[in-house]
Design goal:
The complex is a heterodimer.
Chain A lengths: L2 E4 L3 E3 L5 E8 L6 E8 L6 E7 L4 E4 L7 E6 L4 E6 L8 E11 L4 E2 L5 E2 L3 E5 L2
Parallel strand pairs in A: 2-12
Antiparallel strand pairs in A: 1-3, 3-8, 4-5, 4-9, 5-6, 7-8, 9-10, 9-11, 9-12
Chain B lengths: L3 E4 L2 E4 L5 E7 L8 E6 L6 E5 L3 E2 L7 E6 L2 E6 L9 E6 L6 E2 L3 E5 L1
Parallel strand pairs in B: 2-11
Antiparallel strand pairs in B: 1-3, 3-8, 4-5, 4-9, 5-6, 7-8, 9-10, 9-11
Classes of the chains: A mainly beta, B mainly beta.
Chain lengths: 125, 108
């Protein structure tokens, strides 16, 4: 059974960057897209972007374009999300979640069926 | 971008009652790629329904989804104590993926 294990909580200063990791265990990593979804305190879910490791392609929400970088390391089945130029309003829980399944020739839309437990990022001066 | 609007914002019900949650899309959701998630405080979301009406693995049959196009519904036939939570709809047919703002089902 696939599990996504995320890195620990972070406290960062405004203007700095944070890099959160998400390691997959118990299943195939590269054929599924790994997404990043965040949730500010008391707020709803917000999709930030995702990566399809088998193709090395990324897709970002327009809101985060230029500030977020999502990467993946097939050798360790780990995805990363780096958010730069942090602001107070970036304080949130950041989740990774698996969805889209891709063969070498095509991708099949899937819901986010496996989620990490979340990583709390606090931006504070 | 497809905007998903959930209603009501809060639903106050008693255990044993029926809950009906709505999710309306600003444009048609391609191939009914619409999912519902349940989230409890301090936990990650859990997938309940995908493809608008298919229950995810291990989800009790008191949860059902329906709808197509722009109008979707999640129904909980008889609320159990563990069902009081926040529910989100999400479309995964058109990028960017989007979520509704959530419906909180609270104990009356």
């Amino acid at each position: 059974q696939v599990q996504l294990v995320q890195s620990g909580a972070e406290v960062k200063k405004p203007g700095s960057s944070v890099k959160v990791s998400c390691k997959a265990s118990g299943g195939t990593f590269s054929s599924y897209a790994t997404n990043w979804v965040r949730q500010a305190p008391g707020q709803g879910l917000e999709w930030m972007g995702g990566i399809i490791p088998v193709f090395g392609t990324t897709n970002y929400a327009q809101k985060f374009q230029g500030r977020v970088t999502i990467t993946a390391d097939d050798s360790t089945s780990t995805a990363y999300m780096e958010l730069s130029s942090l602001r107070f309003e970036d304080t949130a829980v950041y989740y990774c979640a698996r969805d889209l399944y891709c063969s070498p020739t095509s991708c099949t839309p899937r819901p986010m069926d496996v989620w990490g437990k979340g990583t709390t990022v606090i931006v504070s001066s | 971008e497809i905007v998903l609007t959930q209603s009501p914002g809060t639903l106050s019900l008693s255990p044993g009652e029926r809950a009906t949650l709505s999710c309306r899309a600003s444009q048609s959701v391609s191939s009914s790629y619409l999912a519902w998630y349940q989230q409890k405080p301090g936990q990650a979301p859990r997938l309940l329904i995908h493809g608008a009406s298919s229950r995810a693995t291990g989800i009790p049959d008191r949860f059902s989804g329906s709808g197509s196009g722009t109008d979707f519904t999640l129904t909980i036939s008889r609320l159990e104590p563990e069902d009081f939570a926040v529910y989100y709809c999400q479309q995964y047919g058109n990028s960017p993926w989007t979520f509704g703002q959530g419906t909180k089902v609270e104990i009356k």
